[in-house]
Amino acid sequence: MNRKLSAARTIPPVDKSRSRWAASNETVFISYTRRLIILSNSMHRPSFYLAMQFSFVHALSPTYYNCQVEKPQSISPLLGCPTNTIFVSQDVSNPYATFNSIQSAIESLPGEGAATILIGAGSYHETVNISRNGPLTLLGQLPANATLAAKPFANPTSANMNLVQIWNNNFVMSGQDDASSAVLTVAPNLAAALIGAGPTGAPLQPVFGNVNFKAYNIDIQNRAANFAISQALATDISYANASFYGCSFASFQDTWYTGRNASTYMVDSVVFGQTDYLFGFGTAWFQNTIFANRACGGGLVAWKGTNLTDAPRNRYGAYISDSKIIRSPDANATTVTTNSCFLGRPWNDLAVTVFLSTFMDQSIRSAGFEPFNSARPAILNTTFYAEFNSSGPGGNTAGRVSVEHILTAADVKAQDFTVDGVFLEHPKWIDFEYLF
């Protein structure tokens, strides 16, 4: 992004009250209501181990937990994983690892067909680029004690139990596109990944990339500096469908990008940043996410939209639901955030940003939103900025800019501000069984 620094919810039901895991000489039934029955003709160690570990899981993936949890060295890390899962480990002596880098594993895959990669514990200094069309799931390993009963996985402090970090330290220098700095890119090709400058950005591309990308329990970090040195992206998701579960994303400026014709969903995760650290040109839903202000500059969200002629029925925008905006625990002690941060500013005059039942700490300024810069000194009524049921010291909407919409429950229902309503379908690429 070419700019100067400047209440109750319902957990989706599980289809079955228990899931079946079968081995050659036993059957294990695992109850989602935390009851465990093991029927066994013999105590086969691997399956008994997995079943015992699963017994109190909450705020993780019931589908992938058996695969993700670390096992003793005598047991294959791939036990409990989908068939043909690839294991990546930085330990070159690990006999179960097919690859020692994530990108090499991705490049080994064909363009079509579903694939799963389990990433072993470690800090991976690399960039990850995904251009394939076929569904791809990246799983970060979890510690053996990752049960987290009855509380969300997301945690902005060092208590976050994710064992996998993917990081790089690229930032945008003169003449470079923002995309050059991204740690994780999900886009069909380089042209589609480009972000461009100004209110229209890079040229529209006649392509689409990954139809179903998922990542679980991975921390994606741009470590370019410990301040807003320049644009330094953690993600660039463009012309693709992507969802993230129990992850974190860290930078200072432009942390998260949902690009053109992209649809993204994030849940039970944390985003760290300072300047416009959510920005985009696609459709993004953030559910039960923590937004951690490392400092204040620009706004939290800088989005842009397009007209209905170019994109009929589009609902491009950033939608933030049941989430929290806080001062980051790793903010410099001398950094002032109180009454200093804006909720957002319009990247172009068709920007859409909606906050639903979100807690806002004392960092949020009473006006809420600000104009983009001195060259565009007003927020036009062609933008759509809205809030419903905001809470916390910064959630008082009495002083908001006049162009903002303060919604009622009836407004939210009428405009269908739901996941299905925003994505214009019940997205098959979202894991609604993830527990949080």
Automatic annotation (TrEMBL):
Pectinesterase catalytic domain residues are 212-420
Alphabetized Gene3D superfamilies for the sequence: Single-stranded right-handed beta-helix, Pectin lyase-like
Pathway of action: Glycan metabolism; pectin degradation; 2-dehydro-3-deoxy-D-gluconate from pectin: step 1/5
Could you list this entry's UniProt keywords, alphabetically sorted: Aspartyl esterase, Hydrolase
Q: Out of the domains of life, which is the source? A: Eukaryota
BP GO annotations: cell wall modification; pectin catabolic process
- What molecular function terms (GO) are annotated for this protein? pectinesterase activity
Kindly give the PANTHER family that the UniProt entry links to this protein.
Answer: ACYL-COA THIOESTER HYDROLASE YBHC-RELATED, PECTIN METHYL ESTERASE (EUROFUNG)
Q: Which family does it belong to?
A: Belongs to the pectinesterase family.
Name of the molecule in the record: pectinesterase
The scientific name of the source species is Mycena indigotica
